[in-house]
Amino acid sequence: MNYRTLGNTGLKVSELGFGGAEIGLQPGATITQQTVNVLLNEALDAGLNVIDTASAYLRSEELIGAAVAGRRGQFLLFSKCGATDGFARADWSKKGILAHIEGSLRALKTDYLDVIQLHSCSAEVLRAGDAIDALITARDRGMARFIGYSGDREHALAALQLDVFDTLQTSLNIADQQALTLTLPLARAKNVGVIIKRPVANAAWRSGTRPTDSYHHAYYDRLKALNYDFLKWPLDEAVAHALRFTLSVPGVHTAIVGTTRPGRWQQNAKAINAGNLERAQFDAITARWTEVASVDWTGET
Q1: Reported pTM
Q2: What is the CATH topology of the domain spanning 3-292?
Q3: Is the C or the N end of the chain the one with fewer CB within 10 Å?
Q4: CB atoms near residue 165 (< 10 Å)
């Protein structure tokens, strides 16, 4: 596993991180604690050192805390606040956000987070100041080492322009390339740590038919129009190519991949051992996007 320095934070992050959304938002709480124990401990053993979760991901923080709290010194722990209860509610007040962070620390069985992020609040919320003040207070109190913003589109751009965040978590993949020109150049210029969510576009093409989950519809529809040749490859090879594209983008430091399947993270880690895509391969993907993408193909939050 290769590691990159997360912008100005100085944190050494594995190129792949574990995303906690899938384990937390499984319908009917179908994933067991035992499965999460295997998922996370195998990943840590293989060299992963980034775990990303959120208070909005229902059971995620609790499952992660129970699985790896005993190994706290071996990984970096990122969480998000503001949105809660599976995104059913949000509280961007200073009091509310600090309460979310305190709840996250309890669930994760830790005294601190390495990065605490605002979870997709609007540019208006950012400019109001209370939410950012809450994160700064949390950092000053030792509840978090660094502060970040997770989101997309003009809201992510506004976050970067405020010059207060150490990290940006945003969507970037073969079906979601707005960030390539909208936010990542500024993030690179400011040496902001860049964490990528949805780095393989949720493999929305995998079944060959439109997914039943509406969460994947936008990417499926875009990929059908983009019609990349490599999507016809065997699934594992196509996913590897897509993941390598995302990690080939200058300024990207770590890509967060969620899974509920033991062994999947190791497959992804093996896939990126080949390194960045060749320049011609990378340019072919961005050129196809430029040719086909509609103006409403904005970053997917």
Answers
A1: 0.96
A2: TIM Barrel (3.20.20)
A3: N
A4: 26
